[in-house]
Amino acid sequence: MRDALKQSEISDLLLEWYDRHARSLPWRVSPDARRAGIRPDPYRVWLSEIMLQQTTVAAVKAYFERFTSLWPDVTALADAEDDMVLGEWAGLGYYARARNLLKCARVIRDDHGGRFPPSRPELQALPGIGPYTSAAIAAIAFDRAETVVDGNVERVVSRLFRIETPLPAAKPELTARAETLTPGSRPGDYAQAMMDLGATVCTPRSPACAICPIASFCAARAAGDQPRFPLKAPRKAKPTRHGHAYVARTAAGEWILEKRPEKGLLGGMLGWPGTDWQEAHPQRAPFSGAWTEIGEVRHTFTHFHLVLTVHAARHVEPTEGYVLRGDNSFRASDLPTVMRKAFDLAQHFLDD
DNA sequence: CACCCGTGGAG
DNA sequence: TCTCCAAGGGT
Q1: Within 7 Å: CB of A199 and strand C?
Q2: How far is the CA of A199 from the C1' of C7 (A)?
Q3: pTM value?
Q4: CA of A29 vs C1' of B5, distance in Å?
Q5: A134 and which of A5, A61, A124, A149 could share a cystine (Cβ 3.0–4.6 Å)?
């Protein structure tokens, strides 16, 4: 009885705080509008949630505006060409998200009549939608009483209950604790309130406990060691890999690119021909040309550092299997960032 | 469960 | 320069 009272008190305080401090975001319906009966478009909720996976709000905004402008609804996106969507996703990272985005849109179009299902199990059966995203869409778009557990919620809950177990082992416990807090009313706003609190108040380094609406309930705050949470397992060191990339144009002025394999790093994206990226790095051009070594590009991926030696040449005739693009169809913005860096370096040389 | 999968900003 | 990490999911 005491616990139930405490839980509803916490969710009430969070909702009151959210009513006053909710961030205004392109995919969000304000708490005022939400209580007036307006629900966000499930398509926009879904798209934003996919983009926001391990990605900052600041980075997502422009991509979200661009995508919703090009493809206003899920059917339009489902009908789009793969290369177009991947090109627009370029620079945002985690490219499997873009491939799964298209798969999901087409399942919605073909098997669900163009509408997102409202239940969490049905949502989680869709490509690219896991435990977090299914709960987020169900709660935010359909006001289902589902509990979202993202990095923000993990941090807030681990501090609130002062959970000593390190992540990722603590995930089940954190989820169970979070579920006890989810209210039956306004679960969508509550989910967003938890995440806003984690993003703006209960931050990783210097949490602003002085302005936190639930500080009086926080066990870590009481103990004075709140920045210590959540505990995390030590991470592995990143090795450095090396490779060579070859940036060239044909005599007709077309850029010589290749489409990377669908699976794996930068899967399905355009890139410059080159060697594998491993510890050993033999310099071997994919086709003959008057290559000039331009310099190095450094780039860090999720689990390794890359040093890429960039070569350039003009008037090259490639062998079969490459993607040729003239200046009217080539956009550096279609390239993943490491490939765009190589282009920036080589362009300076090739323009001379 | 462990590993793979990007990027850019903050401190 | 370097570490951390941001609305995780797939395998």
Answers
A1: yes
A2: 10
A3: 0.96
A4: 31
A5: A124
Which residues touch A42 (CB under 8 Å, ≥6 apart)? A115, A116, A137, A141, A142
- Class of A2-228 per CATH? mainly alpha
In chain A, DSSP assigns E strands to 240-248, 255-259, 270-271, 292-300, 305-313, 323-325
Q: Which pLDDT belongs to residue A274? A: 95
Tell me if the domain spanning A240-351 has CATH number 3.90.79.10: yes
Average confidence (pLDDT) per 10 residues, chain A, 352 residues: 79 97 96 94 98 97 98 98 98 98 98 98 98 98 97 97 96 97 96 97 96 97 96 92 96 96 96 91 86 96 96 93 95 98 92 70
> Do A2-228 and A240-351 have matching folds?
no
Based on the residue annotation, tell me whether A88 is a catalytic residue of this protein: no
- The separation, in Å, between residue A176 CA and nucleotide C10 C1' comes to 24
Tokens of A46: 């879904």
| Span A71-92, pLDDT tens digits | 999 999 999 999 999 999 999 9
Q: In which residue are the tokens 């509803």 written?
A: A8
